[in-house]
Write a structure and sequence with these properties.
Fumarase C, Chain A, domain 2, Fumarase C, Chain B, domain 1, two-stranded parallel sheet, mainly alpha, two-stranded antiparallel sheet, 18 helices, elongated, 2 domains
Length: 500
């Protein structure tokens, strides 16, 4: 059970809730903080001061005053009008992560809504009531309005759809089946549910987790390829990288040497002075990816425990008006991080493809069979899997174009600079999926190449990294003789961390 207080949620806990069925609950301290700000909102509805979203309209209608009797209708209308998402449904793990993040942001007690709202979100997660959230329709400002509104439809009994094994069912039916009551929105409830960058952050956080696993796998794949290509390890010496001390490069060089420990294939060609860039520059390129993911992780860890509402209720500030209108909902911090990380992961895949190209090209592979096609199985080489990897790398180049530099004004120019962070996050997600398959092809080719080396040089020793996973890779290839099936089977194992 994960206690939500708006301050201490970790990436590992988010992944556990999103993918492993872990369940959250509202921490007692958070319940007190939420009740305090909610009581102030209730008391100020009928006051003379205009407080955005509590007794005023939204966006460009902020100057329109709302009668206290109409505050529930105001929240309902907000949810209905903003549930304008389109396209395919978000994956269930992304939706669960989004729900958790919204609950944790509200738990901070700065949103002015009831603890019951977080209790309901937690109960939905425990019962696996996962609304269908369309992937498209958010510009990342004011947060992920449309996606969060589709979640709010289910929470407040306004309809919506919920994912089910056979497709989707109505939100009201799904809540009833789970024994959960829908809520009648009060003042600030609708705005509190819809105003935030939680879909952007959910996508980015899960993609980051997967990218970190992929990076470790890519280092193992690189070591196996370097070994199969009879590489030179002097390029990875710690004293070399101390001369240009980027932390990621130092760490990757150390990982390569760890995976290659014990190998008698590397450094076995005395006349070989240096390798091609795709081998000897691996610490520099993968190290840069390490460093950019480290930056992105720092951003995500801040965002996991951030309030992204407008207005926010600062109850300890002096004065009668505790509502502060600001721009915390803007997705730019996460969007820029997602853009940066997808470039790093795209380069990881680009380098992987160059190594596997050398493995499958006879003139570049230090006398491996052309296309890695054995005489016993003519025609079953690895040329087309390399072509698949090249196609994925090319697709990554288009996806890596930064979305956070784009902006199209919305809301009658009230929202005159938007983040496009949600699209940046989805593109990061897609780059990770593509790159995972590229590394899967490299692992497939490297394992085949190492088998040829063992046949060619009886008695040689493989490095520790290859020794650990070669039987598993060969088993997956044998069980899935069609190349596509083998690639997908290996990619699925990469996602689970089996090669990291």
């Amino acid at each position: 059970m994960i206690a939500l207080d708006g301050l201490s949620l970790s990436l590992a806990e988010l992944v556990g809730v999103a993918r492993s069925g872990a369940t959250p609950t509202l921490a007692p301290s958070a319940r007190v903080a939420m009740a305090r700000s909610h009581a102030w909102v209730q008391d100020t509805q009928s006051g003379t001061a205009a407080i955005y979203g509590i007794n005023t309209g939204f966006g460009s209608l902020a100057r329109v005053r709302i009668d206290p009797a109409d505050t529930s209708l105001l929240s309902r209308n907000l949810i209905r009008s903003h549930a304008a998402g389109v396209g395919d449904a978000c994956p269930p793990d992304v939706v669960r992560a989004m729900m958790l993040l919204r609950a944790n942001a509200l738990a901070r007690g700065a949103s002015g809504c009831r603890p019951l709202l977080v209790d309901t979100l937690c109960a939905m997660l425990a019962a696996d009531v996962v609304p269908r959230i369309p992937k498209q329709g958010s510009c990342g400002s004011s947060g992920d309005l449309a996606p969060l509104s589709h979640l709010a439809l289910v929470v407040f009994g306004e309809g919506g759809e919920v994912l089910a094994p056979t497709g989707t069912i109505g939100g009201l039916e799904a809540m009833a089946q789970a024994g959960l009551a829908t809520l009648t929105p009060q003042a600030k409830d609708g705005l509190a549910m819809t105003n935030g960058a939680q879909l952007t952050t959910a996508i980015t956080a899960l993609a980051l987790h997967d990218a970190l696993v992929l990076l470790r796998t890519a280092e193992r794949a690189a070591a196996m390829s370097i070994e199969a290509l009879l590489g030179v390890t002097r390029a990875f010496h710690p004293a070399v990288h101390a001369l240009r001390p980027h932390p990621g490069a130092i760490e990757t060089a150390a990982e390569l040497l760890r995976h290659l420990r014990g190998s008698t294939l590397v450094d076995s060609m005395p006349d070989k002075v240096q390798d091609a860039y795709s081998l000897r520059c691996t610490p520099v390129v993968l190290g840069a990816a390490r460093d950019v993911l480290r930056y992105g992780q720092a951003v995500v860890e801040i965002e996991l425990n951030s309030v992204t509402d407008n207005p926010v209720m600062l109850m300890d500030e002096p004065g009668e008006n505790h509502a502060f209108s600001a721009g915390l909902f803007h997705g730019e911090p996460v969007g820029i991080a997602a853009d940066a990380m997808k470039v790093g992961v795209a380069e990881l895949a680009s380098l992987s493809e160059r190594r596997l190209y050398r493995l499958t090209t006879g003139s570049l592979s230090s006398r491996l069979p052309s296309a890695l096609a054995g005489a016993d199985r003519p025609g079953l080489g690895m040329l087309v899997p390399q072509t698949t990897a090249a196609a994925l790398v090319s697709e990554n180049k288009a996806l890596a174009w930064p979305m956070s530099v784009d902006s199209i004004p919305t809301c009658e120019d009230q929202e005159d600079h938007v983040a496009m962070s949600t699209t940046a996050a989805w593109r990061f997600w897609e780059v990770v999926q593509n790159s995972r398959r590229v590394v899967a092809v490299e692992l497939l080719c490297a394992s085949r190449a190492l088998r040829f080396r063992l046949q060619e040089r009886p008695g040689v020793r493989l490095g520790e990294g290859a020794e650990e996973v070669l039987p598993l890779l060969e088993g997956l290839a044998a069980e899935n003789e069609v190349a596509s099936d083998a690639i997908e089977a290996i990619a699925a194992r990469i996602a689970l961390g089996h090669f990291a």
